[in-house]
Amino acid sequence: MKLLVIGATGRTGKHVLTQGVERGHEITAFARRPELLTGHTGLADVRRGDAHDLDAVREAVQGQDAVLAAVGGSRIASTLITAMRESGVRRVVMTSSRSVPATRPRLAVTLAWLFFRAAYVDLARAEGMLQASLLDWSIARGTMLNDKPPAGRVHIDFEADATGGAMQLSRADYAMALLDTVENPALIGQALGICGPK
Ligand SMILES: NC(=O)c1ccc[n+]([C@@H]2O[C@H](COP(=O)([O-])OP(=O)(O)OC[C@H]3O[C@@H](n4cnc5c(N)ncnc54)[C@H](OP(=O)(O)O)[C@@H]3O)[C@@H](O)[C@H]2O)c1
Predict the structure, then answer these.
(1) What angle do helix axes 11-22 and 171-183 make, rounded to 10 degrees?
(2) Residue ranges making up the domain that contains 57
(3) What residues are in contact with ligand 1 under a 6 Å CB criterion?
(4) What is the pLDDT of residues 34-88, one digit of tens each?
């Protein structure tokens, strides 16, 4: 699959690049600071740009089979949706947070919203934009990320509140789930909750 990765220099994004190349995808990395990717081999292309810049995103999206945004946000969603509609690229997966729709565990969700309210409001907006976009979207709501070694397994559900799994999720496992999602057409139009394995 020809896959454009936005947020490619991020802690999750770098795992997406490595695992995506291992899976045989033709990966184009899109980043504001592509010089941070010097150690990454096997990429099909590297594009410098800001995902808020419609012209830069428009150029990068051309000819791709899918876009994986390893960073969430409403301005990024907005430019992506416009560029993808224009170019006819339909498949998009974007990260979001499990806290956006969650109501339980009540204390943890309340505290998370207290500290990250602005980010969650913006992610909720981004989710709504994707859901209304008529693109082939999936939203991957991760729980609390860390940089521990991968377990090679995650817990996935389609509910607002987690149905199991661990609150902590390694970024390597999150990247695995993001790639599994973009590869799976059955997940088009779905918002997945992704937790660590129990
Ligand atoms: N952190 C968590 O605990 C958590 C929990 C649940 C879900 N998530 C979701 O997972 C995503 C990834 O998390 P992470 O911790 O791996 O993120 P991260 O390490 O902070 O990486 C974010 C990446 O996005 C890039 N970026 C940000 N704005 C951009 C723009 N306008 N144009 C181009 N690139 C841009 C950053 O590039 P620069 O280096 O240029 O800034 C960076 O490479 C989050 O965005 C969120 O949606 C995170």
Answers:
(1) 50
(2) 2-195
(3) 7, 9-13, 31-33, 50-52, 70-72, 76, 95-97, 142, 144-145, 171
(4) 999 999 999 999 999 999 999 999 999 999 999 999 999 999 999 999 999 999 9
Q: How far from 177 is each of 98, 114, 141, 169, CA to CA, in Å?
A: 14, 28, 10, 11
Tell me what pLDDT residue 135 has. Answer: 98
Residue 108 sits in a domain whose CATH number is 3.40.50.720
The Å distance, Cα 39 to ligand 1 centre, comes to 19
**Test site for ligand 1: of 32, 71, 76, most ligand atoms within 8 A of the Cβ:** 71
Q: Count how many domains the chain has.
A: 1
Give the pLDDT confidence score for residue 2 in this predicted structure: 98
Q: Residue 187 carries which side chain, given as an amino acid letter? A: L
Detail the DSSP E strand segments found in 40-123.
45-48, 66-69, 91-97
